[in-house]
Amino acid sequence: MDGIENNVYDIASEFAIRIVNLYKYLKEEKHESIMSKQLFRSGTSIGANAFEGKNAQSRADFCNKMNIALKEATETGYWLDLLYKTGFLNQTQYDSIIKDWNRIMGVLTKIVKATRQ
């Protein structure tokens, strides 16, 4: 499990960097501020919660942090879909970031399932 746990922090950090850069692009180039702010909050919260899980006080606390990270990732997927469907992201941009989103969802789902057992 340690390999997956350590990997999630790196994946979440890389994803957060992409989200920050996407937020800047949406604000500066597309002049979109409402959905991009929501995306920024949920997308960066994934890594923050996963990182907090590193210092969890118990297995239950760790599981809770990973559950929150998974919920934030799910919300992030919603905002990405909405930004795509409203024309703020083109197909190439969407396909690129949703690939990373699917990766982090898969890792978090595995962790949550494994820690529940």
Question: What is this structure's SSE topology?
Answer:
Elements: H1 2-28, H2 34-53, H3 59-85, H4 91-116
Helix pairs in contact: 1-2, 1-4, 2-3, 3-4
Which characteristics define this entry?
117 residues; mainly alpha; 4 helices; elongated
- How many E strands? 0
Residue ranges: pLDDT <50 for 5 or more in a row?
none
**Number of helical segments?**
4
Instruction: Output the helix-strand order.
Output: HHHH
* Proportion of residues in helical segments: over 70%
Largest sheet: none
Distance between the termini: 12 Å
Beta content: under 5%
Shape: elongated
Supply Rg: 14 Å
| Average of the residue pLDDT scores | 94
Structural class: mainly alpha
Commentary on this structure:
Helices cover 85% and strands 0% of the residues. By secondary structure, it is mainly alpha-helical. Helix 3 (59-85) runs antiparallel to helix 4.
Summarize the structure.
By secondary structure, this protein is mostly helical. Helices cover 85% and strands 0% of the residues.
